[in-house]
Amino acid sequence: MKTVIAGGTLIDGCSPDPIADSVVVVEDGNIVAAGPSKSVSVPRDAEMIEADGHTVMPGIIDAHLHSTYRARDVRQHLLNTPTYNVLRSTEILAETIACGVTTARDMGGADAGFRESVAEGIILGPRLLICVIMISQTGGHSDYWVPAGMRLPKRTWLPDPIADGADAVRALVRQVLMMGADFVKICSTGGITSFTDHWDESQFTVTELRVAVEEAARKGKKVAVHAEGLNGIKNALAAGVHSVEHGWFIDEECVDTMIEHGTWWVPTLALVPESVKKRTQDAGWSDQQLANEDEKDQQILTKMKQHVPLWQDAVKRGLNVAFGTDQSHRLMTGENLVEFEYMVDWLGMSPMEAIISATQRASECIERPDLGTLKPGCRADVLIVDGDPLSDIKLLQERDRLRMIIKDGIPVIDKMRQPPVGTPIEQRRTK
CA-to-CA distance for 399 and 391, rounded, in angstroms? Predict the structure, then answer.
């Protein structure tokens, strides 16, 4: 079946300028043609979608999120069964695609079963790339040890994420790759939600981190590193990681190294300021914490604002930046596109540059050249947006503006034609 999206302003994900009065032709889940209406032939037997007054753009790639459920309230977390958490995760996945994210790199929590269930259309959600777990040292960011003398498992369907020493790291990396991981995630610093560490401390030695990179490379896979403080970032870069997640406190030396080696930065800018804002609106949410998150968030936010000039200079110099949100049990489920606002305001990107960071550039980061652009041969992941996000990037945060969300050529959200309620899931299966 052929579908034509006609009349909209096209942001194809790679061109520096939008294309007015465009035509996009979709067949068998792929883009077969896209461009100005005068240069694209419209098949006679195609289904037509009129997009006048709308922007047509690629589906968003979120290169850093957590798509599986766990209760923020620790008491409730301990009372929930594993199957309850798995089933609640389907809500998160549905909310994620409903805000325009059609592909996501899950940074810990989803195993191969989630990825395949989405791919087969059993559950609705973005296409997933998985790392299974976030590898940590003892007392590190994935170690949910508490002073009562026990470790609280975050997601009991996953293997133990703790490893110490090069041999143990090697064994755990091999295990997650055996379990079908698309990439490896490891922590080189502490974090906000972990009780036993501080976000600024470095974790794992360069040798341990390099072992993870080497073992992943044997399988043709890359390593993403959770890194917030400077020393941990530098250790990760010395080990040759593919992407630095968060990485807020890079310095000029880090920027030089990252540009030289083509390392990706996935800055996840919105989570901390949005968390600080959330506390002013919901005292109960703030009380549901274990790790002094409020203090850590405030420390980080203060330093983030001081780093804005360095970030903006790094972007101007050509640092590889990919869109990512750190959507998690903490915040932002279904609100992922608020990240664009911070990329424009804090990184100095134009709206077009921010969108490209979440489409074509993000596809480079996750090594999926068949995604992120509306050009022949790419998967037909398409958003039809009411209005012009190049004039106001914030309008992408308005769910009602997303009139149609297409994944693999199939509308999964359709507010333009309003399909009958109760359409069987088999009719919207994706690949």
Answer: 17
